[in-house]
Every structure is written in structure tokens, then in C-alpha cells.
Amino acid sequence: MKDLIILVGLFGLFATGLALECYVCDNQPDNKDKCVKTTIQCREEQDTCQTTIKWKAPEFWTPRNEKMHHVFKSCSSSMNCTNAQWGLKNKCMRDWYKDWECVECCQGDRCNFYVTLGSANLKFSITLVALSLTLTAVFADRFGAWRLA
Ligand SMILES: *[C@@H]1O[C@H](CO)[C@@H](O)[C@H](O)[C@H]1NC(C)=O
User: Fold this and answer.
1) What is the four-CA torsion angle of 35, 38, 44, 45, rounded to 10 degrees?
2) Is 76's C-beta closer than 6 angstroms to any atom of ligand 1?
């Protein structure tokens, strides 16, 4: 038992001495390939993994100039990351029809694997439209039937 405690203690000391590991990628269109396969060891003062997600039209020309995701991942400090987040609080809306930019901060090895790409609002809108169509159909049906009776 004592040996186990010492072992756990040693492991703890060893682990805290290790650098944080974060996924790293620069300006990728989605959370695939580079963004989920490339990691780096952070510098000693970097205790946070930072992800920046931008939603806007690409810099290069495309036929319909549709907005797309731009994903950036890197090591950061909790202060730098929180500052970036704070600075973007009015731009992080995740509305599909507007440009937006969000920063996510997390602590822990490879914690910035998942990214909120923010199609939640779009899904919600579609659900709402589908729901109102259904309700309209149901009501129209009821009302029509009632009038005919
Ligand atoms: C915080 O941001 C500054 C300015 O961009 C940068 O020079 C510094 O390296 C960053 N600190 C960390 C720990 O990443």
C-alpha cells in the first residue's frame, strides 16, 4: 500500500513536470485531418489548449462565395486564451447567415480535439420551420374538416 502511494506520488510529480500536449493546425476548413492528427508539446508557461473557429467566406475565390469554417488550434496560456475569448464575446454568435468568430480554451492533454462548429442554430431553425409546417398542416386539416362537417 505504501509502495503504491509512493508510486502514485512519483507519477504525479513526473506528470506535472511534463509539457501539455495540444492539437495544432492553422486555417483548416474543418475539424479533420491536420486538426485531429497533429499535436505539439507546449512550452512550459503554456497551460491551455486554444481553438479559434471563424465562420466566413474564404480568402480565395469560390463560385458562390459561401461561408465556411476556418479552424485554428494551438497552445496558449489561460490568460491569453481568456482574453481572446473576452475580446470576441460580441462576435461569437454562431449564426450561419453572419460572420462569426469564437475561441475555446481547455486544460489537459489533447483536450482541444472536439470543436463546436456551430451548426446548432441552423439545425434549430430547420426544426422550427419543420415544426411550424407540421402544425400548420395539422391545424389546416382540423379546421378544414370542422368547416365541412
Ligand atoms: C500570449 O500572447 C502574447 C502576445 O500575442 C505572446 O507573445 C505570448 O507568447 C503568449 N503567451 C503564451 C503563454 O502563449
Assistant:
1) -10
2) yes
pLDDT at 88: 97
117: amino acid identity, one letter:
L
Please report, as a single letter, which amino acid is at residue 105: C
Q: Model confidence over 64-89: pLDDT tens digits? A: 888 999 999 999 999 999 999 999 99
pTM (2 d.p.): 0.71
Instruction: Copy the grid coordinates of residue 30.
Output: 474543418
Q: Are strands 100-106 and 39-41 parallel, antiparallel or unpaired?
A: unpaired
Indicate which residue's Cα is closest to atom 2 of ligand 1.
80
Domains with residue ranges and CATH for the chain: 20-141 (2.10.60.10)
Please list, in sequence order, all residues whose beta carbon lies within 8 angstroms of the beta carbon of residue 96, skipping any fewer than 6 positions away.
Answer: 55, 67, 118, 119, 121, 122, 125
Is the CB–ligand 1 distance for residue 82 below 6 Å? no
Identify the three-state secondary structure at position 67. Answer: coil
